């Protein structure tokens, strides 16, 4: 008799995400156990419940998904979950709080379809946010020259230093983008621009975007008007606008959903997987083959 695929959803919010639950069901999970208000201190008993109820040969039928709206809290939960594992007693776990990992992976893969990222000049606007930070890290791993844009030059520097500490040889430049003039200077010769800012905030005007003569791909991850990149429609999906390939949030969202579902299915292939940004990006790359 085959074991049911159980997914344990750990969410730091007051109510566990309905979005994450629906995606789990659509990914083929048989049983979904949802826990809200989860803190790192409360993780141990939940993880032990996953680890000690099935023998080692069947632990790959149980997995953990870490969601919620707070990415920093999700990272803390992931660290606490992994700390509970020992020897063969472990289950696979995926962290995608606020959809940050799947969204960043989808955005970078979209850019890679049109530009060889190795050596490409890429500017990430709002790169100190959860999605932007992950996109910058993935781009740096691909060998791109990445400009870390932020309204705070100090925060941009901190993110640049943090990524550099993780990736030896990463080519990163911190850029303050608190004024239109500073923003244009950060994107003027970029081949790719990814805007990962807060909902409803324009980061680059359409006029300034059209002035970027080297631009080949523009990706806006903001789904709420006004667009983060002026003139990029939220539904744009590889839309050629004056020689620039444009993606809007919904245009990227289709790939994000495919990656999310594929990553959940991957959890059940073995009991020893930890899926964070890099691993989720590789799953997305595998889907492109």
Please mark out the parts with pLDDT under 50 across 5 or more consecutive residues, or reply none: none
For the largest sheet, list the strands in their spatial order: 7-6-5-8-9-11-10
The topology string of helices and strands comes to EHEHEHEHEHEHEHEHEEEHEH
Shape: elongated
Q: What proportion of the residues form beta strands (DSSP E)?
A: 15-25%
Structural class: alpha/beta
- Assign the CATH topology of the largest domain: Rossmann fold
What assembly state would you assign to the polypeptide chains in this entry?
single chain
Mean pLDDT: 96
Q: What is the CATH first-level class name of the largest domain?
A: Alpha Beta
Overall helicity: 25-40%
- Shape-level CATH architecture of the largest domain: 3-Layer(aba) Sandwich
- List the domain count as a whole number: 2
Sheet with most strands? 7 strands, mixed
Mind telling me the CATH superfamily name of the largest domain?
NAD(P)-binding Rossmann-like Domain
In total, the number of strands is 12
Number of helices: 10
């Amino acid at each position: 008799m085959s074991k049911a695929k159980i997914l344990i959803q750990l969410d730091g919010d007051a109510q566990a995400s309905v979005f994450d639950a629906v995606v789990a069901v659509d990914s083929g999970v048989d049983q979904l156990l949802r826990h809200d208000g989860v803190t790192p201190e409360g993780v141990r008993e939940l993880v032990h419940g996953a680890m000690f109820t099935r023998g080692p040969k069947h632990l790959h039928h149980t997995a953990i998904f870490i969601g919620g709206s707070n990415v920093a809290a999700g990272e803390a939960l992931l660290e606490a979950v992994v700390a509970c594992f020992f020897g063969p007693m472990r289950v696979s776990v995926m962290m995608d709080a606020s959809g940050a990992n799947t969204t960043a992976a989808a955005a970078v893969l979209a850019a890679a379809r049109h530009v060889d990222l190795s050596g490409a000049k890429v500017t990430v606007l709002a790169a100190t946010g959860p999605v932007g930070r992950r996109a910058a890290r993935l781009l740096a791993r691909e060998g791109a020259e990445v400009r870390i844009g932020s309204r705070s030059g100090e925060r941009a520097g901190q993110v640049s230093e943090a990524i550099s500490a993780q990736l030896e040889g990463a080519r990163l430049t911190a850029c303050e983008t608190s004024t239109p003039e500073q923003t244009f200077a950060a994107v003027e010769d970029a081949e790719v621009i990814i805007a990962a800012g807060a909902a409803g905030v324009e980061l680059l005007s359409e006029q300034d975007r059209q002035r970027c003569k080297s631009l080949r791909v523009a990706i806006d991850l903001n789904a709420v008007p006004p667009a983060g990149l002026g003139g990029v429609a939220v539904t744009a999906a590889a839309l050629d606008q004056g020689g620039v390939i444009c993606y809007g949030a919904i245009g990227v969202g289709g790939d994000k959903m495919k990656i999310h579902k594929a990553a959940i299915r991957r959890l059940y292939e073995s009991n020893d997987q930890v899926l964070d940004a890099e691993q989720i990006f590789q799953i997305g790359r595998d889907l492109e083959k």
